[in-house]
Design a protein that fits this description.
Layout lengths: L35 H9 L10 H10 L7 H7 L12
Helix pairs in contact: 1-2
Length: about 90
């Protein structure tokens, strides 16, 4: 029965939307996160000029040279070589 305002009393039929609703929209890029090297430099409160004179940073770079990013110029300054074929998987 149709009510006085034209309402049938039934719920509206929901049609299924098809396709990708994000089609044509640009992909949102994730924010860049700091590297472990940058986190360590921040913990040590070093400026770029202080990198080469820091014994703690050099020890960290020697321990993590095959695992974490460190600037090539800094590794070259200290004579630290990186094993390009290194794999943590046994």
């Amino acid at each position: 029965m149709i009510g006085p305002d034209g309402d049938t009393g039934c719920l509206p039929v929901m049609t299924r939307k098809r396709g990708n609703p994000n089609w044509g929209r640009p992909i949102l890029l994730a924010p860049a996160l700091p590297t472990e090297f940058e986190l360590r430099v921040g913990q040590l409160q070093l400026t770029e000029e202080m990198y080469t004179s820091s014994a703690e940073l050099r020890a960290w770079c020697e321990r993590n040279r095959n695992r974490c990013y460190a600037p090539e110029w800094l590794l070259g300054e200290w004579g630290i070589t990186v094993d390009l074929n290194f794999s943590a998987v046994a």
